[in-house]
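[job 0412] stage=fold_complex status=start
inputs:
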Amino acid sequence: MAQKKEYLSKNQKIVLDIIEKSSQPMKAYSILFNVQKKGLKAPPQVYRALDKLVEIGKIHKIESRNAFIACRNSACTITNATAFSICESCEDVKEISSSKLSKYLSNFQDKEGMKYNKYNLEFFGICKKCK
Amino acid sequence: MAQKKEYLSKNQKIVLDIIEKSSQPMKAYSILFNVQKKGLKAPPQVYRALDKLVEIGKIHKIESRNAFIACRNSACTITNATAFSICESCEDVKEISSSKLSKYLSNFQDKEGMKYNKYNLEFFGICKKCK
DNA sequence: CTGTTATTGTTATATTATAACAATGTAATA
DNA sequence: TATTACATTGTTATAATATAACAATAACAG
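[job 0412] stage=fold_complex status=done
writing structure:
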């Protein structure tokens, strides 16, 4: 039976663990460097784990930064409907979990009346600390 | 006087021209290939033009695709408040110009009451043609 | 003109990501 | 147990995306 992934493989656990320990997004090669002591030596090992973790919603990719952050929002498991705020000064990234926002975007219709339940939104600004 | 850029340099025109002729996003190295006959031989020449064109709002970067598309939306000159729909099957990309959406997002406040006038939103789905 | 700044050209290299295939592990069952 | 099937891992090489650094040239204000 084609099982639906409910557990994580060894490498996926290792990669998720290091990302969860970071409050901020991590780049793939920084992850690679950090997991080399655990035996993951080559990029494909890291990228495969990242791909799967993104797919199952455990982490998200910050597209504008080519970096990966752990999901802190139980609501977005698997939905791939994500929103972030990014400080352009200190590069601090926060996941936004606003049910109002996600409802608005999931219900948004383009000119042809089409809806999209999958989206990625990145807000940019200067955070309070940096102001 | 530190002039505010109102004109385009030679290379910027060449790069913008090729992007505007394409209805779909173009990748940097595809642009490079296409402008080599015009004398732009090396990546930095293309990337510099791309950077400036993005900065002044003539083109936008589709972050999830590492590709660049001409701006068709007079309203977003310089604001860097952008929204796109992307078909995950045929990779067709459309810029969304909805004043309702842009108002909603520009007025959105996060938990700390912070607003962001700069954002990038990418919607994903399967377009009508591909359904 | 002349000094200043923007732009361009050029080489090299950094960063991000995937292809391809071999080896190993896992789990169901004949 | 042996067998099969499939997922995962390991490994090498390379593709794709992007920038650093500096030299050469052009554009322009004073």
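[job 0412] summary: The two ends of chain A are 55 Å apart (CA to CA).
[job 0412] exit 0
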